[in-house]
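Predict the structure of Pimeloyl-ACP methyl ester carboxylesterase.
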Amino acid sequence: MKTIFKSYLAFAAIIFSLVFTTANVNAQTTPKIKNVVLVHGAFADGSGWKGLYQILTKKGYNVTIVQNPLSSLEDDVRATNLALDKQDGPTILVGHSWGGTVITEAGNHPKVAALVYVAALQPDSGENSVQWLQTAPPAPENGVLPPDDKGIAYYDKAKFHAGFAGDLSKEDADFMFASQGAFYANGFGTPITKAAWRTKPSYGIIATEDKSIVPSIQHAMYKRSNTKITEIKGSHVVFISQPAKVADVIIEASKK
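Done. Here is the predicted structure for Pimeloyl-ACP methyl ester carboxylesterase.
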């Protein structure tokens, strides 16, 4: 009987050890913040986030992709806030390009724990996007066209591949061009009312081969705001061409 009892105790100790070890490992690998909301920019839509979505969801993150109407800053902020309302806890808010302006305003939402700017605009309170776009000469490859008679700005098809997605295949760039949203250019001139990066941790990814928002502009914005900078070799759509490296920055933000 004593032998059986001792065997039982030994077995119980092994089981307890395994449970404790598993719980400890899970505690170390589970992100502190598991919710991520992704906000696309102008001349694009949410489909570009697919590669990043796949990487993050496989690592246990709950990822939501906003489809911006691109009709105004206010409308895009509203769409982002609707996505944030649905999150069940603290959230990392990520914006690309024009989406950086959107998250600068929407980032004041109480569920936003940190901001990640991906080759993105980052105005301050009272500033608008076009102010920053005019602080350096555009790259020759840049193909943003003047607004049409409806106030909508598109990207020149002849320049889209080199100017927007130079490190993607022509086939992928053509798909992106075909799926771009109708961006109402007045959004570029709308000022931020309250810049969320002033009160929340911010991370900035500089795309070193960017031809749409030249790297010097990204450097200036992120340095001014004391944003933690990561440089990644890639085009304006670095989140598509280098999704694993972009994911690393988001994961870092989620563990702080």
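The chain has a mean pLDDT of 91.
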